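Researcher: Let's try something more involved. This one mixes different molecule types, so please make sure each is placed in the same coordinate frame as the others.
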Amino acid sequence: MTRTVRRLLVLLLLATISTGQSAAPGATARASREETPSAMRASLVELEVARTLYDYQTPWTRSSGNVRKSALVIGSDEILATADGLSNATVLRAQRDGRGKWYDATVLWVDYHANVALVQVADPAFWKGLKPVELMAKVSPGEEFRIERWKSGNMESRKAEFSQVVVKQSKLSTYDFAQIELTTEMTGGGWGEPLLVGNKLAGLLSSHTRNTCTVTPAPFIRFLLESRRKSRFTGIGFFDFTWQPAENPSIHRRLEFPGDPKGVLVIEGAKLNGQTNVIQKHDLILQVDGFDIDTQGNYLDPMYGRLLLENLSSRQHFAGDEVPIKVWRGAKLQEVKYKLPKVDFGTKLIPEHIFDLEPEYFILGGLVFQPLTGPFLRRWQDYWNESTPPFRLNYYKNDSPTAERKGLVVLSSVLPDPYNLGYQDQHIPLVVQKVNSRTISTLQELVEAFEHPQQGYHVIQFMKSDAIRKLVVDASSSQAATSRVLKRYGIESDRFTAEKKTAAR
Amino acid sequence: MPDHFLRVRSTIILPLMWSAIAALGGNPAPEKSVIQIYNFSQAVAWDAPWRFHGVGRSSGTGFLIKGKRIMTNAHVVSWARQITVRRYQDPRPYNAKVQFIGHDCDLAVLEVEDEAFYEGLEPLEVGELPKVRSTVVTYGYPAGGEQISYTRGVVSRVELQNYVHIGNMSFLGVQTDAAINPGNSGGPVIQEGLVVGVAFQGVPGLENTGFFIPPPVINHFLKDIGDGSYQGFPRAGVKVVPLQNPAYRKSLGLPVNGGGARIDLVMPNSSAKEILQEDDVILSVAGYEVGSDASIVYDGNRLNLTAAIQHAQHGETVEMKIWRGGAEKTVQVPMRCTDEERMLSNQYDVLPRYFVYGGLVFTPLSIDYLRTLGRNWADSAGSEMFYELYYRRNEKPEVNRPEPIVLAGVLAHPVNANLKNQAHSLVGKINGKTITRLEDVVEALSQPGPKEHLIEFLQSDGVECISKQEADQANAKILKTYGISKDRRL
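Model: All components are placed in one shared frame. Result:
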């Protein structure tokens, strides 16, 4: 495309956007559709998700919510969407042309860590006339980007200005990967709207704050989907070691590294997959997957330029792949093979997210127990209008599960009843250490421990903190007390635990 | 949050409240023994421990007690560079100095060298804990005028109060609706001519709410200094919680509706750890029967049992009746003052320890230091430092550091120019040596070894290196550049 033609197109697009700023949204979209009919009309669909919402403050309660989001036809029977908003879905429907009939849909595949999903529609009538969109194999900063979506039955098209490619945390997960940041005048986006270059997909919007949106790049999605089709996708991998920049040449001198400083310093070695010897504390990481690492932790990405090395865990690899890494250790260069661990919320003592699972809980005589999870902490924070979760609970986020303690269970609230008199004003939540002398890591273990009272009593011990350490309640009257509490507080069941959850699925 | 009542000088004059003193019995003119105190103070900069802040001027109140001493609040005379006192309706200033100061109980006594000061002055006597609903009169020099002021009020309640001067301790305190304003601090609260309290703090935003330090605390302080030194208020080192759940009481063999509170935790370094155990039930303390909510009836007021423990002096014992293993037992619990929680309390008149090397400023972690990080210091400090300050001592005593050390700052110089900004980080190791106190830093950086010092910060704060030779050479120049007379205060 010549420079002149490109300028004309830019001017035309700017004129369209300018019209949109001064008119009502519907009128804008109509004008846009009439003057520059988008090829995306035959590819862009809307999804409507009815979801069950759980309240982690009262985990037995449920409410419903709806999400509308954009999606894109990418194959003869495949719709690409972000995973955001699909969890706990009770009804999923798809609509084409921005209006008309809603078709029942199902999730064919979803990966919340990658924030990518494939959706299917069984009714052949849905697919008539729809055209798949090609995912770009390479996205360059200099492209002319636009974002499109259905809005009130019309197509909205907005220009997007490239800002930067940055390695940052996935919206729904804990790993870092390269994402595109752009500015746009579109409002309320971030729900899977396609970022387009011509008629090709450059990425999907995963979030949108003020006028900045974050996009999962199409090359990354393309790599995922192709690998999935070839049954090569084993999950997103990540580096479980921690490093710091090594711009201080004294560090290199201390490590007897010759020549100009390069690489970054490991300050916490690998732990998962039995790789404690593979990447060790005070290793200098010089090269990862064939890319040299500078003292700030960047490598030169062929597509995006300088990026943090974290991106190399998912750029061309999945969990279980072996990534070659060159390290400087013991005043010698060494080459190691690092097997990528799978991104899993269970690798942290407090799982950051929970998807498609009801919150677990167990009630004994008004004492409410729950696993300590990210959603629980965030709900607690909201409920008490706190800027941060209780420090001592949040501090456990620094910890990893061990063989002895896979997770944490908290006494999350007390529903007042004569049975629990004296415990109603405690500084909860309290992390349970033992019940009836049994160490507690999971709610299931807690339930089982309550089946073994000690001399007619249940003894509940909590982790050391600035709060109470021990409670004792009567075992013989616990069942009656629980029944009384459930009736009084309108709770259907005294529990939802992992065992019951499996049965329910 | 309660606040101290210091005030700055004001030129507004209010009329005296003669009607207030007309109602008094006992000492007919206690106002003559009420002293106005001016303090020129200079506090230290906790993040640059060799430096002091500018000189501040504040005023408060005091009163003459027997032995030619002036009693006032500790916070009135903290960080004093010069203290001057003035007698009632006497324009002459007299120099005074602190004889004893108890920052925990916010009390101090001053002495004036010039004997002329005491001429014609009668010391005030300390009375008893005033009854709730009884009337008291405060005397002081509060904001809004230069002359003495009197305010009358009733005793609203008596209970344990957090003493904000020290910050992390609670003692017996009396709430009154008598106006206690900035400048009243240290002034006597009088009932029937006797001192029944020392005005000391209030709650901003709450009207008609002031607090004074009652006689049990005053007398404890005076008895403590009787031997020529001040030790402070001891702690039992146990956490006592209510024992009201019927099942828990039954499990311990106690009647459901009886008294007694349970020991939930014996602190790792408690002086009572050989005597008391977890799940012991305290039935009485120093003769006071303990309720199931851990309270005692103290002179008609139901208070936390701590009030009884605080009668004891450092080194004394407190008799407790406890319930253990289904039987009653009488034990003598030793009371001890320690400075283990010093870093959690506000510190005064103590110059912080520090060591400067290669422009790196090392100093012990303390809440005073953390406050230099700004209003949101709890967020700025990071979770490791917060945990170290508040939790590790009790949760992981086996790896507790008696004096956690922070890198408080980096004084810019070419020798440290390549260090990433690691200021405000907890120091874990230096050259492989675990740092548990400031002396460890000095030793680790003084030893011969590798050409580069390796400093490891706790958890994710990472590591830094600095050239030993270059740092050794740069030290003198850095000290001179930044006006630091000595590289250490140990």
